[in-house]
Amino acid sequence: MPNIVILTGAGISAESGISTFRDHNGLWETHRFEELATPEAFRRDPVLVHRFYNARRAQLKSVQPNAAHAALAELERAWPGAFLLVTQNVDDLHERAGSELLLHMHGELRKLRCAACEDVVRHEEDAGPELICRACGVRGRMRPDIVWFGEMPYGMEEIYAAVERADIFVAIGTSGVVYPAAGLVAAARGNRRGCRTIEINPQPTGAAAFAQVIAETAVIGVPKLLAML
Ligand SMILES: [Zn+2]
Q: Who surrounds ion ligand 1 at CB < 5 A?
């Protein structure tokens, strides 16, 4: 039974209307993303960093999973071999579509983590420095459970182990030429199982490691993928 690993990126969320941080206007035009998404920024100005993530978290209430998210959940239910969905997205659209074997390598907007004791809690409303950790009682250290610049993505060991035993690797709505997709597709291509590598992207990135390209948006391309597998 074939094993499959699927990596999704910003493209699949964009089709649900999730704007990227770079599209935000107002406050975020005057702050570079790189100045907000770091542990240093959080230490320097936690109110500002919370405001940025509060805006992104609030946006989740007005968006819904799309046909691509639904198709991936359906694929998971029907797949006979090992299945792993890895997402770079910090929204919860995959979960809401029904995906379960899912790894958020860059964290989740609807979770907070205590920087003092590492306890993680679900949190759907606005957050701020007044919050107190339920586990250790420390105030002001609850931060978005997001992997910031300079921090290690979650689950890399598990992801690479799954890619090593994958027969099919698919990248959807993410650039195949930059990290992490570039590293994962190279590892998939070089594994001992002769892994089939597929990219779904309306503007294919031209990464040579992909044997097959579906030059479509995720909403069109993922159902095509299912028909192909
Ligand atoms: Zn704590």
A: 114, 116-117, 119, 133, 135-136
Q: Give per-residue pLDDT as tens, 8-37.
A: 999 999 999 997 655 555 555 567 777 789
Question: What are 111's two structure tokens?
Answer: 């979770």
Residue 56 Cα to ligand 1 middle (Å): 23
Please state, as a whole number, how many other Cβ atoms lie within 10 Å of the Cβ of residue 35. 16
What is the whole-number distance in angstroms between the Cα of residue 199 and the centre of ligand 1? 40
The whole-angstrom separation of Cα 104 and Cα 162 is 14
76-129 residue pLDDT tens: 999 999 999 999 999 999 999 999 999 999 999 999 999 999 999 999 999 999
pTM of the model: 0.94
Q: Which of these is catalytic: 50, 104, 106, 123?
A: 106
